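Per-record layout

source: Candidatus Photodesmus katoptron Akat1
name: YbgF trimerisation domain-containing protein
length: 259
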Amino acid sequence: MFSTLKSLLIVFVLLFCTMPLSFSEQIPVLDLNNYHSYSDNDSSVEYKIQHLEKIFSSRHKMHLKMQQKINSMSLEISELRGQLEKNNYEINKILERNKDLFIYLSEIHTKVKKTEEDIKFKNNISSSFDRYSSSIYEKQEKIDYQYALDLILKRKNYSAAIAAFEQFQKKHPDSGLLVNVHYWLGQIYFAMREDEKAIENFSIVIEHKDSHKRADALVKLGDISKRNNQIAIAKNYYYQVQNEYPDSSSAYLIKKNIE
């Protein structure tokens, strides 16, 4: 009996001793070192997120600035394109007018050249006959006129042409070519932008309603007025051309100025 109790006591003691060890194995232990590591990792992630946000914000601002510059440059390009189109339009107008003018001048030059050949032929005959003296004077008149005209068309020497035409006026005060002389003087002064002298000569031309240069002289007076911002006066000259010379090349050239 006693031995049996002793055996049971020993068993209970052993069980009691082993229980804390088993229980301790089931309780988790907090590792402070690992805890601090987890906290540091969280801080690192937060820092990286903030850093990425700053990079994104900076790039976003840079993108906005670049877009603003692109928009500004696009506007400038549009303005330049508009100015270029306007300049091309004005250049085309000038080229069209000059083309018609040079065609007309070429026709005049051809006619005058033919007349000059006739003059040379008749001058050889008139040297022997006094009755041709009047004809010689007329031919010399045309030669003097052609000489001055060649200074414009061939040599482009405007100063010499002005002097030659002024000499022509003194030498041939009753010439039927004086209207043409004033027309060409007006053209020279117009090209040189001496508007007052140009107006003076073109005004003399338009007084002769039978002159074939009257229509173009009216156009030039309109161009001078337009160049000096006298739009109403310019349009009056253009309308006069359109009404009096509706089928002329001058009327065709000023259509765009009236519209």
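summary: The domain at 176-259 is CATH 1.25.40.10 (Serine Threonine Protein Phosphatase 5, Tetratricopeptide repeat). Residues 20-30 have pLDDT under 50 and may be disordered.
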